[in-house]
Amino acid sequence: MKTVAVIFGGRSAEHDVSIVTALSSIIKPLELTKQYRVIAVYITKDGRWFTGEKLKDIHLYQSSKLEEYLAQTKSTGVVFDHGLKLLVPTRVGRKEVAIDIVFPAMHGTYGEDGALMGLLDMAGVAYVGCGVAASAIAMDKVLAKQLAVANGIPVSMFLSFQKADITDDTVGVVTQITAKLKYPIFVKPAHLGSSIGITRVQNDTELTNALEVAAYYDNLIIVEEAVQNLIEVTLPIMGLANNPQPALLEKPLTAAEDFFDFDTKYLQGGKKGGGKKGGTTGSQGYSQIPAKLPKDIYAQAGHVGLAVYTAFGCSGTARVDMLIDSKAGKVYFNEMNPLPGSLYAHNWAQAGVSKVALVEKLIEYALVRYAERQKLATTFDTNFLKQF
Asked: Which residues contact 2 (CB under 8 A, 6 or more apart)?
């Protein structure tokens, strides 16, 4: 029986979303298979690592008892030595547990952005999901757009600015933006997900405020021209880069002038502009699955989504968000998420893949990729040191 460590939480603005993904969409389905020993590895907001069966219970995080429980539990020791071993606290000390595979559930910084994947790669540990490069690029909205452009994938007009540009000369930045982009405009922190810090603006005053908000969360800010006659769609994909398998194209049921901010996505059940028929309430909100679009537009969106997945070198799973100009019939790449919230299990369920089958497939892909990486040479013998 393989031991799977599900790592979640972390020093990220998406800490709480990560807990839900780990407990609901990963740990529970994995334990239902009865084929894996599942260890919950919770990283606190200040970076301490803990394990324990109680950490699999969502109610612990919803109460004031979490800190009390952690205070009574010794933090978990972590050993990277030809793999990953956890020094798990017991009543009589600590027990060393070898980990066969890691299932990351850490959204945002220090996890989904490739930081955790780099550590696992260096230690030679198999893990689920995208690798370092794909994760890092996907979580940098500027790099993602640039890579899409380099691969001939359409994107909306955009500009990027450093935080220092905004703090030193906000008026000058606003002038640059309005000279090149037309309202409405979206202002976003370049490295955050879950719509945190994103603002849609219609005038210079709103733009100034939005830039300050985005700069509060990130050192790099992207500013994008809104797509007209907008239809938003998203496509979950899984598999290795050479053979990606798409789920169903999903359309959030929002008004054209709305967008899913954090509150809409997670706190209100995604029902902004809801009450519409023909939708499915999933972990990411009220959506239409599959999206009702003309066949050619549906096919075009599927092509763009798969092109992004391949160009970014994704592996395991990812979600590609796209914007459609319904009058022009054109699909634009918007963002790529290398760890979709709750794995977008609600969409895969509509495509005939259960939560249990989903996590099993993702582990299978991870082990295949790990085996392939093990075949690569990582050292090179030289006479260089003999010169000294």
From this structure: 35, 36, 37, 100, 101
pTM over 0.85: yes
Domain check: are 237 and 221 in the same one?
no
Q: Alpha-carbon distance 90 to 134, whole Å?
A: 38
Asked if 8 and 43 count as a contact pair (C-beta separation under 8 A), the reply is yes
Structure tokens at 60: 């612990």
Does the structure show a pLDDT above 50 at 332? yes
Query: Is 135 in contact with 117 (CB distance < 8 Å)?
Result: yes
Query: By the 8 A CB rule, do 169 and 211 touch?
Result: no
Residues 218 and 233 in one domain: no
Taking a C-beta distance cutoff of 8 angstroms, is the pair 30, 103 a contact?
yes
Range of the domain at 336: 229-373
Asked if 21 and 39 sit in the same domain, the reply is yes
Distances (CA, A) of 191 to 144, 213, 218: 11, 14, 7
Please give the DSSP secondary-structure letter assigned to residue 326: T
- Inform me whether the pLDDT recorded for 129 exceeds 60: yes
Nearest to 52 by CA among 23, 30, 29, 24: 23
- pLDDT at residue 101 above 60? yes
CA distance 254 to 257: 8
